[in-house]
Design brief:
Layout (H helix, E strand, L loop, with lengths): L1 H20 L3 H21 L10 H15 L11 H23 L8 H22 L5 H20 L8 H22 L7 H23 L8
Helix pairs in contact: 1-2, 1-8, 2-3, 2-8, 3-4, 4-6, 5-6, 6-7, 7-8
C-alpha cells in the first residue's frame, strides 16, 4: 500500500510539473493547493513505526512549505516581496531539516580522506556557483539571504551522507538533498535573473521531487537501534 501511495505522489508530482511547463494556471494552482497536504498525509499514515511520536519539526516544515507554495499561486504573482518571503521561509525549512538530521544522529566526521572529500567538494562547488550570483547582488538583504541559503544547503547536503540509517531511507535522503541542491542552483542562478522561463520550471521540478524523496526518507528514518 505504501508503494502505491509513493508512486501516486510521483505521478502527481509529474502532473504538477507539467502544468507549470504548459502554463495551465488553474491546474497549477490546484496542484499547489494539494501537494503539501498530500505529502503530509503520506508522512503521517506511512511512517515505518507509528509507535514513535510524530516529529514536530517535520510537521512545522510541512506547514512552512505549504505557505511558500501558496505564495506561488497566481494571485500573488505581482507581490514585490514574494521572493524574499519565500527565501526566508526556505531558510526556516532548511534549518528544520538540519534539526531532524541532527536528531537522527548525523554528524560530520573526518576519519578518512573520503570523508574529507565528502565535505569539501560539495562545499567548494556550491560556494563557487552561488558566489558568482551573489557578488552581483546589490541589495544587502538579498545578499545575506542567499549566502545563508547556500551555507545551509551545503551543510544539509553533507549531513545527508552521514545519517546513521541502515536502509533505503539513507539513499532516498541523499537523492532528495541532491535534488534540493539542484533546485537552489537553478532557482537563484536562472530564475532570479529573469532568464529563460523553462529554467524556473526545471527548478520547480527539482523542488517537487526533492520533497517527495525527503519525506519518504523521513517516514522510514529509524535509527539502527530500532531496526
Amino acid at each position: 500500500m505504501k508503494t502505491i501511495a509513493f508512486l501516486f505522489l510521483i505521478i502527481f508530482g509529474v502532473v504538477g510539473v507539467c502544468t507549470k511547463f504548459l502554463k495551465l494556471e488553474l491546474y497549477f494552482n490546484i496542484f499547489l493547493g494539494l501537494f503539501i497536504p498530500l505529502l503530509a498525509l503520506y508522512y503521517l499514515f506511512n511512517r515505518k513505526s507509528k509507535k514513535l511520536p510524530v516529529d514536530k519539526h517535520i510537521i512545522f516544515a510541512l506547514l512552512t512549505l505549504y505557505i511558500s507554495d501558496l505564495l506561488e499561486l497566481s494571485f500573488f504573482k505581482d507581490l514585490q516581496i514574494k521572493d524574499k518571503i519565500q527565501i526566508s521561509l526556505h531558510l526556516i525549512i532548511q534549518f528544520l531539516f538540519l534539526i531532524v538530521f541532527r536528531k537522527e544522529g548525523a554528524i560530520l566526521v573526518q576519519e578518512s580522506k573520503i570523508d574529507v572529500l565528502k565535505i569539501f567538494i560539495p562545499a567548494g562547488f556550491v560556494f563557487l556557483i552561488f558566489g558568482y550570483f551573489v557578488f552581483d547582488e546589490t541589495k544587502v538583504l538579498n545578499y545575506i539571504l542567499l549566502v545563508l541559503y547556500a551555507i545551509l544547503v551545503v551543510i544539509l547536503f553533507i549531513l545527508s551522507m552521514y545519517r546513521p540509517i541502515n536502509n533505503y531511507s539513507f539513499y532516498f535522503g541523499v537523492f532528495g538533498m541532491t535534488l534540493l541542491f539542484l533546485y537552489g542552483l537553478f532557482y537563484f542562478l536562472f530564475s532570479s535573473q529573469n532568464s529563460i522561463e523553462q529554467f524556473y520550471g526545471i527548478s520547480f521540478g527539482f523542488y517537487v521531487f526533492s520533497q517527495i524523496f525527503l519525506f519518504e526518507s523521513f517516514s522510514t528514518n529509524l535509527k539502527p537501534k530500532y531496526e
